[in-house]
Amino acid sequence: MGRRKLMELEWTLLLLEILRGGDKKSIVFIHGFGASCEHWRNNAGYFANAGFRVYGLDLIGFGKSEQPHSKKLSYLNNNVWSKQVADFIREIVQKNKHEKVILIGNSIGGLTAITTAALEPKLVEAVIAAPLPDPVLMQSLKLKLPKYITRLRDILIHVFFKFLPIEIIIPLIIRTNLIKKALQLAYYHSIASDDDLQKIVKQPAKRKTAARALRAMCIGMSTRKPEDTAPKLLKVLENRGDRLPALLIWGRQDKLVPLIVGKRIRKQYPWLELLVLDNTGHCPHDESPHSFNQYVLNWLKVNL
């Protein structure tokens, strides 16, 4: 073998060594209401060991992310968060502009994942919502209101949350057992001895700017445009020619978003897959991590 060919082979081997892992698929975990990326404590390591590049982020208003003043950002909703996720993928996750990622979200994180998949199809390869909450999905009767009624409703919502003393309410909740009771609603098993979980939720709520973030979210989620609601977003995904793989995961004992909602979505959009985990509440990834991780990994292997 000539010296030139030997050098080319050495460079090739070196590049392969540098790029090792470059063909790994990326997963972005998106947390739910009141949580942070730390809520994926029982999942991130599993998928990293399974050969994925794993990322998590704190949505604006939660965790350690910015909790902006109303003059900078007066509302927060799944559309805003989806733009944050899209920017995160482009600036942090992608190794090249053609790479697509897997989005896995819990609760509001699931809605944000679906939103990102619908609005930024070139960035997403598969999406998992565990579960998929949206007040619109829980309404049995959908009325199309006149524009002036909608505008009046939005004004009243702004006024209500502007004067609601959230700055007083949040500290009261944190200093009492109310926060533990509220957190227990999201779980089937007792969380009384899970100090780490309580810390994950309490720490961000103690920030001085937590109240304005909650106010921004209440206003943003209540005054969203129809196209930012789950039914419209699922319709966008359904009508796409290259429909991406999508999975819903529900806890059978979910008290916050009952399983009947998941079954209703599955019936209306039969191309969606639905996994139901027994003895599990609103946070299936955290309460039943073994079943969750194993099923999701197998599902990804089959669908990707």
- Element pattern in H and E: HEHEHEHEHHHHHHEHEHH
Strand order of the largest sheet: 2-1-3-4-5-6
Largest sheet: 6 strands, parallel
Report the sheet-strand fraction.
5-15%
How large is the count of helical segments?
13
SS elements, strand count: 6
Short structural description:
The chain is α/β, with parallel strands linked by helices. The chain has helices spanning 3-18, 44-49, 78-93, 108-119, 147-163, 166-175, 178-184, 195-205, 210-222, 230-238, 259-268, 284-287, 289-303, and strands spanning 26-30, 53-57, 101-105, 124-129, 246-251, 273-277.
What does the model show?
With 304 residues, the chain is of the alpha/beta class. It has a single domain (23-303), classed as Rossmann fold, CATH 3.40.50. Helix content is 48%, strand content 11%. The chain has helices at residues 3-18, 44-49, 78-93, 108-119, 147-163, 166-175, 178-184, 195-205, 210-222, 230-238, 259-268, 284-287, 289-303; strands at 26-30, 53-57, 101-105, 124-129, 246-251, 273-277. The chain has a six-stranded parallel sheet with strand order 2-1-3-4-5-6, with helices on both faces. Helix 4 (108-119) links the parallel strand 3 (101-105) and strand 4. Helix 3 (78-93) packs across helix 4 (108-119), helix 4 crosses helix 10 and helix 5 packs antiparallel against helix 9.
